[in-house]
Amino acid sequence: MNQERLMQVLLAPQISEKATFVADKYQQVIFRVASNATKPEVKGAVELLFKVAVESVQIANVKGKQKKFGRVMGRRSNWKKAYVCLQPGQEINFVDGGAV
Question: Measuring CA to CA, which residue among 45, 87, 85, 78 is closest to residue 60?
């Protein structure tokens, strides 16, 4: 895996009530990832960008919702998210912009 590809895999951290619950209970961090990303690519990208040790990665495909735009029914895009389980003692702090 080349570094250019790894830099494009992670799109954004998923910051929500559920994400903070998962982070506290299971020591996992949730990221929005590219739709063609694989588990080894996500693991390599997190380790490269945040300098932490990753234990495992689970990936989920999120289906886009059907929404109404005026009188026209539309559909939001499907996207992919990754649950990244960090090794014990590892932590990513997004407030400071990196690993702690």
Answer: 78
Q: How confident is the model at residue 99 (pLDDT cuts 50, 70, 90)?
A: low
Beta strands in the chain (DSSP E): 10-13, 28-33, 54-62, 66-69, 72-75, 79-86, 92-93, 98-99
Query: Which residues are paired to 79 by β-bridges?
Result: 62
End-to-end CA distance of the chain: 26
The answer to whether 56 and 38 have CB atoms below 8 angstroms apart is no
The token pair at 57 is 């990665």
pTM above 0.70, yes or no: yes
Cβ atoms of 10 and 29 within 8 Å: the answer is: no
